[in-house]
Amino acid sequence: MVYKYFSITFLSLIFLLGCTQPRYSRTEFVLGTNCTITIFEDRKESVLVEQALINAFDRLREIDNLMSVNLPASDISRINASAGIEPVRVNKDVFNLITNSFICYFYSSGAFNPAIGPIVSLWDIDGSNPRVPLQQEIDAALPLTKFNDIEFDYDTYSIFLKKQGMSLDLGAIAKGYAADETAVILLNAGIKRAIIDLGGNVIVLGQNPRKKPWRVGIQDPNGQPGDYIRIINVTVDQYYTSIVTSGGYQRYFEQDGIRYHHIFSPADGYPVNNELLSVTIISPNSMYADAYSTAVFVLGYEKGLEMVNNMPLTEAVFVFKDGSVRTTNRVELITP
Ligand code: FAD
Ligand code: MG
């Protein structure tokens, strides 16, 4: 058995800046990945900037503590531990994110499914014992991934998973939510230019210091971290724009020459295997960009393109297994 596994998410995007303005940058390991916030401000603003960075990382740790499936005391773990037993009253942010994931589930025809937890656990791609499950294990787990078996109580902010063995996994949406929350903290602190990178969930905030569109590199899925397959221009129409990539090239293991990665088809419980290597979504909202980059990767090019074309202010870059790249109409490529 050939076995290979990367436990840390590599940056999916790189930024090509040549700016002169002072940068304040901090990186911390939160949400299971390296999170970097870079702020471009005048030196006289340093106290304000330092405080904004402290507040932003405090918020990221708070979201991690509430939403991680790896922490037994998190709200998500408590919901999962009470599956089939009783409803669990949760933090309002967690409740709102789960109800938002409901929207993403419907918009993507179930391709994004936060009730996929039992399948994620079976394969254990992110854990210490990744393996190919038996078909009968997958067959037993799939009926426990029905979104309709989640009950919401809007009066008490309670969530109930109706069947024992069900479990939620917000890994495909929570980093995007966390990126939006970080952006709001920076904007409220009066910061006008920044980059937020939560392990590939990226936000560019305000104008590029050179007053030109941000130049964003899309990771080459077959290259080394930092090798880009295309560079795109990203403009910020309002406050910020998010760029999020999903693909099967970062978290995976290999057995008998076959690569098994961490994004699953809710239809059959297997890692998605279609013509795509990665999908990048560009959107004014990082939570949706996160959920929909995963969903479009699951749907494949044709259905995924149709979905993106029906969404306002949303663009996509598709990288195919044959090395080709296609984009939606408004994406501005800088290199061929
Ligand atoms: P995305 O495509 O955005 O999401 C893929 C992830 O979503 C999969 O890993 C799986 O969990 C889930 N998923 C798979 N298929 C589907 C589907 N069809 N629909 C919906 N969801 C699906 N990693 C660690 O190694 N250690 C940690 O302690 C840790 N803590 C975390 C805490 C939080 C709050 C969050 C949000 C993430 C954490 N992570 C941790 C990372 C997490 O395990 C995932 O690997 C990561 O979120 C995947 O993000 P992505 O951008 O690579 O892929
Ligand atoms: Mg995602």
Structural class: alpha+beta
Beta percentage is 25-35%
Tell me which CATH architecture of the domain at 4-45 and 192-334 applies here: Roll
CA radius of gyration is: 20 Å
SSE order: EEEHHEHHHEEHEEEEEEEEHHEEE
Number of helices: 8
CATH hierarchy, class of the domain at 4-45 and 192-334: Alpha Beta
Fraction in helix: 25-40%
Provide the CATH superfamily of the domain at 4-45 and 192-334: ApbE-like domains
Ligands, deduplicated: flavin-adenine dinucleotide, magnesium ion
Q: What is the overall pLDDT average? A: 91
Instruction: State the end-to-end distance.
Output: 38 Å
General shape: globular
Largest sheet: 8 strands, antiparallel
Briefly note the CATH topology name of the domain at 4-45 and 192-334.
Answer: T-fold
Q: How would you write the strand order of the largest sheet?
A: 2-3-7-8-11-14-15-16
Low-confidence stretches: 1-14
Overall strand count: 17
Summarize, please:
With 336 residues, the protein is an alpha+beta fold.
